[in-house]
Amino acid sequence: xxxxxxxxxxxxxxxxxxxxxxxxxxxxxxxxxxxxxxxxxxxxxxxxxxxxxxxxxxxxxxxxxxxxxxxxxxxxxxxxxxxxxxxxxxxxxxxxxxxxxxxxxxxxxxxxxxxxxxxxxxxxxxxxxxxxxxxxxxxxxxxxxxxxxxxxxxxxxxxxxxxxxxxxxxxxxxxxxxxxxxxxxxxxxxxxxxxxxxxxxxxxxxxxxxxxxxxxxxxxxxxxxxxxxxxxxxx
Amino acid sequence: xxxxxxxxxxxxxxxxxxxxxxxxxxxxxxxxxxxxxxxxxxxxxxxxxxxxxxxxxxxxxxxxxxxxxxxxxxxxxxxxxxxxxxxxxxxxxxxxxxxxxxxxxxxxxxxxxxxxxxxxxxxxxxxxxxxxxxxxxxxxxxxxxxxxxxxxxxxxxxxxxxxxxxxxxxxxxxxxxxxxxxxxxxxxxxxxxxxxxxxxxxxxxxxxxxxxxxxxxxxxxxxxxxxxxxxxxxx
Lengths: 235, 235
Prior knowledge:
Chain A has helices at residues 43-62, 67-81, 157-160, 172-181, 187-201; strands at 2-10, 20-26, 31-39, 88-96, 101-107, 112-115, 121-124, 140-145, 151-155, 210-218, 227-234. Chain A is α+β, with helices and mostly antiparallel strands.
């Protein structure tokens, strides 16, 4: 099998920095974790918050700390550091090669979307609090088998708020379903397609930072076990 | 401008894990850093070492620590932890958006290859020690302006040792020059092409872990400031 992950990420219109932070880290027992954080407000102050939360989470995950504990620690750290006055949403998506599972941790009002191997679309939207403001905040954790055909989409609230000020908000599950129905859509095309729909609703000038992460588990054999990473960073 | 980075990475033939670790982290003042570590020997023990060194480096870089200090700290940490008995090579490549420079830190006998904006190929091969074994080890640091047309290639020693047991070792600078001469070769094609040549010399069964990282600074405007990340992980 092969895991493919694609991220597309854009900052709020006319701000120098996105307040969203996406980090990736290798799990010492095998696999990868992706951490997506949306800091309260936008611009530089939001970036400082999301960087702080993401940094705490990845440094723990890199030491082999389990996802639930890393999310709790990231909350406690922000809560202590900022006296419960600043919030951030936190998603952790892990490919855990020890348990052969996909682990989704949510501290966000945004759902995660899962398409299972048999094509069923599930919206993971159990009530969940952002980190940083309420003592004892815990993540919502969902563990799925690492099965070919599985697709997971996580995103920050800028995606589902796209268009809400003018036409109508983006229906993310419907958009995922539509994009998936196109034969042979690549992981990158799914991520780009979702971001593109949001940007169209916002007429190219997003009112908030938008980040989309798509993970697909594919049947195909990776060629010769080569791992690849590609980054595009406009400056 | 747009920065593109591509990594291609493969483990030694018939080992479950690559002893090389590649991590990427956002710089809190703007930009990205890539950390490439090759732990002594191969397999699980090498992975544990490279994970330890990479983790120390990225956690410091994520806090805003400068590259030279992060490399020194990673050395001191491994030296202290393993009593000077275990070595690792360490490369840090940073896109620093505060100073608008590319920063290359080498603790490795492998050179870094730079193609400057005017097409000149430079081999950065000042003598440099791996981390972990000699007290006071320092990185070799090169800072380059962030100019469109610049290409940087860093790699672990498995690349230049490819073929050395049978035919002849891969001439990495010559291979880079040849691949660059193909019009319109993408960043990913450069990384894949170098790995491919090494794998051919090793008849598909590499005697060592091989990792290649290519960074290109392109003239083109990134479309609407969208940042992208793509990962392929065969399992």
